[in-house]
């Protein structure tokens, strides 16, 4: 299974997902044009998780939070890896040079 599969959370955490509701996936959309990022999905669910039993799972919930954090970081790294050519990081070198010259000019 890859990171973007919607069945990961129910399979890894059956106590947190007792009804097998799908978690975040790469294909999750709000409408036909707006995809939901993993950061948006987990942020929303962590803020509205009103079931108090989730807090009773303690270490399991902490592990789930850490897994969600790792997935978000992995997604961001994948984006940077695949979009590296489009980011034009070489143009940032000129900005860095200008800032370093400005720092050297100040007493």
Automatic annotation (TrEMBL):
<feature type="domain" description="Helitron helicase-like">
    <location>
        <begin position="52"/>
        <end position="103"/>
    </location>
</feature>
<dbReference type="GO" id="GO:0004386">
    <property type="term" value="F:helicase activity"/>
</dbReference>
<keyword id="KW-0067">ATP-binding</keyword>
<keyword id="KW-0347">Helicase</keyword>
<dbReference type="InterPro" id="IPR025476">
    <property type="entry name" value="Helitron_helicase-like"/>
</dbReference>
<keyword id="KW-0547">Nucleotide-binding</keyword>
<protein>
    <submittedName>
        <fullName>ATP dependant DNA helicase</fullName>
    </submittedName>
</protein>
<keyword id="KW-0378">Hydrolase</keyword>
<dbReference type="Pfam" id="PF14214">
    <property type="entry name" value="Helitron_like_N"/>
</dbReference>
């Amino acid at each position: 299974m890859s990171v973007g599969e919607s069945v990961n959370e129910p399979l890894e955490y059956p106590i947190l997902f007792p009804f097998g509701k799908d978690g975040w996936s790469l294909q999750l959309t709000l409408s036909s044009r707006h995809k939901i990022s993993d950061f948006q999905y987990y942020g929303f669910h962590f803020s509205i998780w009103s079931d108090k039993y989730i807090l009773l799972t303690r270490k399991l919930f902490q592990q789930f939070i850490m897994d969600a954090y790792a997935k978000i970081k992995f997604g961001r790294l994948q984006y940077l890896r695949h979009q590296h050519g489009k980011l034009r990081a070489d143009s940032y070198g000129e900005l860095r040079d200008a800032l370093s010259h400005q720092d050297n000019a100040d007493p």
